[in-house]
Amino acid sequence: MKSITLLKLKLDKQCYPELQRIGELCRRARNAAIEDWLLRARGMPPSAKQRDGLSESTLLYHAVTAACPSLDTQLAALIAGSISSSLGAKLDWRRGSGEDGKRPRRRDAILDYQDRPPYFSGLEIPVRARTCKLKYGPRTYLDALLERRNHLSLDILTDKLPAKQKQILLAVATGERKQQDSRIVCKDGTWYWYLTVANESLEMDARKMLVLSPVIPADDDKRSDRPFRCEWENEHWLVGEGRYYRAQLERLWRILKEIGWQYRQRSGTGHGRGKYDVATALRRTQMRNIATEFRRKVIVSILSQCERWGCGTILYREPTLPVRELCWFAKRGGLDWDWTRFLGDLKNAAARRGVEVKVERLKMSEVKACVPSPA
Question: Of 172, 198, 224, which marks where a domain is finished?
């Protein structure tokens, strides 16, 4: 299985004018693609090259090349593909769901006037891995094809880079490590190259076991904001953005209380109950979406640790009912957590990656033995 490493490399100021010009071309191309899609969706006939039967990304590619003919064709294909994927993605869970309880696609929400068409104002240049080459030495630079028949030499500042990142750059330059499609981004007037490098594939060894257990926060530990703990050999990691999860649910609970306060004079009963039900159902659906997204991110973080160390087995210490009252969700967050669904989703996601999940009960006697008694 493969994982990736992301490096943030600062570029020399001498190449800023060229990057500024190409970044503006890419920004114009993205906005032209969105405008072309929206006009065609509203009934405007397509251009001569946009024939029937072509995929949406191909139609957007023709719109990009028509708006920016000097842009490299492979960059135009990357931009068109990213716009097509963005339109086909589902809306964020914080924006609610449709009448059927499911999150609508972004393109459907835009056409139904539930969402705004995206507008791109930042400067970002996609970089195709096959059209660029990294040179490492006394002068480290990137030779990239960003315009048609025009290779740019972009100097990379490596003086303040850690030794480990320099080793990765050398491995990429010599071909030992394979780079993937990356991007060049302007942040506060400074240009950076976000290099994505594929790590070596690791064989998942079933003899290597990652131990997963819930966090039992102590009374004097007010900083524990992560609900799960992963252990392997002599190292451990805390998993889950518990503070953000709790803050989002508390925000929706306050909104529900405000809605109940608005309908306190029996205006939410009888014929007027429809408005109350619609207002509360939307917030409760958002809460379910938040829990689903949080559970998915926790599982992804756990499996990424398995991929990092090649662990083919997860030993999940499932808490018993009394222990669950001492876990982070009940003790720190005061939240409900579907432990059964979490285990089911973990097993399904692990099976798709070739990882076995073994379950072992975490009993109250073990927790009491680890927690010191008060003096």
Answer: 198
